[in-house]
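User: My collaborator sent over this chain with a note saying "see what the structure looks like." That's all I know about it. Can you take a look?
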Amino acid sequence: MALTESNEFKLGSKAPDFTLINTIDDKEYSLNQLKGEKGTVIMFICNHCPFVIHVNTELVKMANEFQEKGIKFIAISSNEIENYPQDAPKYMKEVAENLNYPFPYLFDETQQVAKAYDAACTPDFYVFDAGLNAVYHGQLDDSRPGNSAPLNGKDIRKALHNLLEHKDNLANQKPSMGCGIKWK
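Assistant: Without extra context I'll predict from the sequence alone. Here is the result:
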């Protein structure tokens, strides 16, 4: 696995709109249908990446905590599935059900959504305010598979608390790192 860093996403940028199929219920949803009242976290993830597998428990925990506060979470997989069949929608649904994802797990078959966000890796995290303006793009925390840093979501948690408390967000946003998105 090649370690890939997230690309820059200009803070203040509007979240690119999309409509995708949620693999959990096989229904189509737009960003406007899924966004949160106070903010939205968009995560590019996949089934097979060790970096995503490493953070899955924290993603579920964080989503359950912050969705009660008006922050919605949206997971998107944009990996091509011919060479990575474990990332196909039927397996996405299995992973979501097995891990009790409290958020939709959308499939970006054309990869147009990943391109619109300039997503580079899994996981790749974006936090938007109530108006869908970017306030954070970076890592979950310092934890990686095989290191001893605690898995606690501290960077995104701080960004979400700042958003809810109407404070300026982190000036130094460390890029996320993980497996590169598998492009067609």
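A starting point for your reply to your collaborator: The mean pLDDT is 96.
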